[in-house]
Amino acid sequence: MMYSFISLLSLLPLAFGAVLVPRNSSAVACNNSPDLCARSYSNITQLGAHDSPFLKDASTDNSSSGNQLLNVTLQLDAGVRMLTAQAHDNNGALHLCHTSCSLLDAGPVSDFLSEIKSWMDKNPNDVVTILIVNSDHATAATLHQQFVAADIVKYTYTPPQNTAPIQTWPTLQSLIASNTRLITFVADIDPSTTLAANAQYLLNEFTFVFENPFENTSATNFSCVADRPSAVQGGTSSAVATGRLSLVNHFLDISLAFGIDVPDIANAHLTNANSGVVGNLGDSARECTTAFGKQPNFLLVDFFDQGNAIETVDKLNGITPVGRSDVNGVTDTQKSLSNAGSGRNGLVINPLGILVILGIGAQLMLGLC
Question: How far is CA 299 from CA 82, 84, 211, 285, 350, in A?
């Protein structure tokens, strides 16, 4: 009798195979959901980590300029699919620096790309987007060298043309099948220079994307109005009509002296919440969906693990995710505050970081750097 019972148990995987597929099976999911595979790249919402390599942790002495608490690998593990960064010339080398390399230097661009490449090697059913702010106007050839050094060029997607918005983007499944799973935007770069550098995968951001305002120090000032590029500024409907993808900046800064702003980590769990206080991500996403006539393509946040940012993205995509790490840093107290619509907190930042920031601000004011 026991043998027969065990035999019956052994048949259960055959009878209920679809149910017993592991939740992290890459064979059935694209960007953490089988429901996204057949959808166009332009018909999904991706969670973006603003200034993704700039960390506020022990490695940076808890820098007050850090925008994220978790590194790029953990961001991707948790479902972030857009990573943004700033590239600066650091004595002839291209580094990821936050405003100034003396303020926060996250190392060579190639190191950042290598970390992404390592993650993509292990996750063959995921499409990743990066946005590099080309702060010191690096050439296409210089940027391409960083991608070559990271051995990530093989994953890059090159569209049929790079001088106008793409009206029909590939589906996630087709990008995965062709293994061209890395979409790369640069703000900005001259498309005519990418051909000579054999780097047509470097896409000028504002040819393909429009953004709402990104500088914000008040939770009441979030807006869905198109702000960049200048050609569509103030004309949200016109921006959508061009076929550009929509990027919604949703993060708050705190203003210091000398015009210096630092990320508002104290209220990140409220800013990134799905509902609750004024200025929460969920409400902004829903408002922008109405304004655009379709869901936003990218929601860009600071401290992505604080609050329910990924939940807002999942709701917009209409999915129940699989195979995603849970790195939610929201405490039970913060969750209750968010759900109750509690007020926001005051400034909490590293005093040493303030001195560094103010020192750089003074130098900028005096034209010394």
Answer: 9, 12, 10, 8, 27
